[in-house]
Amino acid sequence: MFSFIMWHKCATQAKLVIELLLVKIKYMITIIAGTNRKGSNTLKVAEQYAAIFKEKGLEVQLVSLERLKSLERNPDFEALESTLKQTNKFVFVVPEYNGSIPGILKMLIDQSDIKNVWWGKKALLTGVSTGRAGNLRGMEHLTGILNYVKVVVHPNKLPISVVDKLLNGAGIITDAPTINAINNQIDEFIQF
Ligand SMILES: Cc1cc2nc3c(=O)[nH]c(=O)nc-3n(C[C@H](O)[C@H](O)[C@H](O)COP(=O)(O)O)c2cc1C
Prior knowledge:
Elements: H1 2-26, E1 29-33, H2 41-55, E2 60-64, H3 75-85, E3 89-95, H4 103-111, H5 114-117, E4 122-128, H6 136-148, E5 152-153, E6 158-160, H7 163-166, H8 176-191
Parallel strand pairs: 1-2, 1-3, 3-4, 4-5, 4-6
The protein binds flavin mononucleotide.
């Protein structure tokens, strides 16, 4: 009886470890902070998303488009593209620039190997603005573009408006309803 209980416990633990490994292998998640503007609020929000994923036990890659110094297909771009090819799920944190997404983000998509980077993948969208819309329009534009390159977009798109008021001195959002909305969005995306 005792040895059966021990065996059962070991088997359950082994199953848990295997399941966790499978989740990690199956889902490589990349968060894209969708601007090349230095000191952007978008990058701060994207860093907070990465920290929340980590708290939930999931490793994520955080990509800032700040490193895309040029708009050409150069070795830097190709190194980034190679990590995007290995990604199954993308989180786009995207600022509102003149009522839409930043040009650098569209350039990233336009220059990439569409079939191998985007086709059949999944995405979660978060908009960031100092204005009141939280980039609602930009997220709709991005949804259209991503659907065109055969990416399935999660319906829970989160507009984060007046971001300059929400971020504290350390560049972190502490507002409870916003944190709650981010957590719900991430939990849904992990299951997606
Ligand atoms: C080129 C540019 C255009 C912008 N256009 C808008 C806009 O249309 N609506 C808005 O609410 N904020 C606009 N903003 C302000 C951004 O919402 C604000 O900078 C916010 O912090 C997100 O951008 P960031 O990640 O670059 O900081 C604009 C900022 C820049 C740099």
